[in-house]
Amino acid sequence: MSAPVRVLFTIPNFKTAGGGQVVADLCRHLDRDRVAPTVCVESAGGALEAELAAIDVPVVEHPFTVGPLPRASLLLRCRAIAGPLRALRADVWHSWHYADDYTEPLVARLAGGPAWVFTKKSMAWRDSGWKPRSVLATAIVATNTDMVEQFFSTPFLRRKSEVIPIGVDLERFATAAPLDLRALAGIPSGAPVVAVVARIVRGKSIEVAVRAMAEVPDAHLVLAGRTDNPDHLDYVDELRRLIGDLGLADRVHLVGHVADVAGLLAASTAFLLPTGHDAEGCPVAVLEGHGRRLGLRRHRHPRVAGCRGRPAHGRGRPRQRRDCDGGGAARAVARRRPAPVLGPPGTSPHRTGLLGAARGPGPRGALPPPGGPLGGVTVPVG
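-> structure tokens emitted (382 positions)
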């Protein structure tokens, strides 16, 4: 039997980076006889590190990017941090960095990495670093078909691009115990709770969710996301003023970062994603809401259909409303229906929630089906 492929997953940290749970779930489901995973973070900490330690996945704290300027010293600075990483002897680097950084592939090459792959998570492309990042990649994982059409359509990039939607471990949501959010936030017993799980930043359009609550007098909104990011404190202050101006201080609750997302969703009546469709690639939060079979409301995300194993275009395209303001979100929340209890993996799908079909877990208890190419190496994850 051949030696397992050594895969180094890189992610800035497990405290704020949105792909942290996805990387942890991916490591958990890898066939360890064929793949030997290691994770490198630039800043250590977070509960997910303990989860990885429990399944014997090493987590290394070491920088894997440098500032792009000044360019005259770029290669020297990349070489300086590449030395210790060479000892990991990674066959494949798989980057989950969310930014348009193009220094990591240089560090990977200088560390002896024969293949450097990155997952494109968002639909951002205007930043200048995405093109050189894509050119330097050995392979590109796109999380929806729109990315290939919009960003990687040239023959050179299309040849090394592969669509692999984000996966969610549904068993974790099926067995989650509800958080005591009602007592924590002072929500009256029996009141409907709408959850928003997102970074509290301007690009997530959180104000749309807040304005929606002004038109749904009986609903409470729980905003779960960090509010202490120094780059977005002004936006948090704007939200607090908006909440006060609309008289919603007793019904809109900024609870900060919630580590137990599954427990939050288990305690909620409905899930709302206010982000406009141009910002999201394959929104994990929506898949998690589907995993709990919550009533769902989201902006028009044709890419969500592909993430759920349904075509995003043509036949079979699900009906998704295009109401992209507080009024549209409020109407959807007001039409909510009670969400049924999520059964164990393998239960049959059924219709629920605010926006139609919320499919149940497949027989493997994961969505989408695991597996896919990674830098020329097929890595089984089931």
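Residues 309-324, 337-382 have pLDDT under 50 and may be disordered.
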